[in-house]
């Protein structure tokens, strides 16, 4: 199951042994589909009725690029307001974030903008942020235009994509795009803070086994 949703290495190539590990957090209003996006990416599954996340859920998944394997440690946070105070605990130290809104709800788009501003103020200054307009399968009920999402993303140097956890549209692509943007080199100095954690080939790491076979 852990292999589904990955970008597979071309036949005949071999894993070079470089595995970079990154913390990624999902933020957004309740019921925008954060958990559904993660479930689609990690397990290739979708449930029409997904229970609300309590606090946060933790999952892992790997993405295979040409020369390395990127392992995501994914924190799927609850969107309810009562859990907002817990959010910094999850995005602190994260190298990547996906801020999700529902294209059928203007309010969730406005809330997504607030999350972006909070990340820009308080998160890792080098964090890679993606803005995902989810539920693209409900385009006939659209309240947020694609151009509005793209314009906001361009103004704030964000990755932007519209997704559908239900149809799997662009779900893998958003994680792959983030993986490509993340720095893969080791930190240059002791005070720099690791941008990624490199796992040596053969190290015990269950989530990375089976990748790129």
From TrEMBL:
SUPFAM superfamilies: P-loop containing nucleoside triphosphate hydrolases. The keyword Nucleotide-binding applies. Keywords: Nucleotide-binding. Residues 182-213 are annotated as: Disordered. Coiled coil: none annotated. It holds the Pfam family Ras. It comes from the Eukaryota. Signal peptide: none annotated. InterPro entries: P-loop_NTPase (IPR027417), Small_GTP-bd (IPR005225), Small_GTPase (IPR001806). Residues 185-196 have a biased composition (Low complexity). Belongs to the small GTPase superfamily. Rab family. NCBIfam families: small_GTP (TIGR00231). This is Ras-related protein Rab-5B-like.
């Amino acid at each position: 199951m852990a292999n589904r949703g990955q970008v597979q290495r071309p036949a005949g190539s071999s894993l070079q042994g470089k595995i970079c590990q990154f913390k990624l957090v999902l933020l957004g209003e309740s019921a925008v589909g954060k958990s559904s996006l993660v479930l689609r990416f990690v397990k290739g599954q979708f449930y029409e009725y997904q229970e609300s996340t309590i606090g946060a859920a933790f999952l892992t998944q790997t993405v295979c690029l040409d020369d390395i394997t990127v392992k995501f440690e994914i924190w799927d946070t609850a969107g309810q307001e009562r859990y907002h105070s817990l959010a910094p605990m999850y995005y602190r130290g994260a190298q990547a974030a996906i801020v999700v809104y529902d294209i059928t709800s203007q309010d969730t788009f406005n809330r997504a903008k607030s999350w972006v501003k909070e990340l820009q103020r308080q998160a890792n200054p080098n964090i890679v942020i993606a803005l995902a307009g989810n539920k693209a399968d409900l385009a006939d009920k659209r309240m947020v235009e694609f151009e509005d999402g793209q314009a906001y993303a361009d103004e704030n140097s964000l990755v932007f994509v519209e997704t559908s956890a239900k149809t799997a549209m662009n779900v893998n692509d958003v994680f792959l795009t983030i993986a490509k943007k993340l720095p893969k080199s080791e930190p240059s100095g002791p005070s720099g803070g690791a941008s990624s954690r490199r796992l040596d080939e053969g190290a015990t790491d269950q989530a990375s086994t089976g990748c790129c076979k």
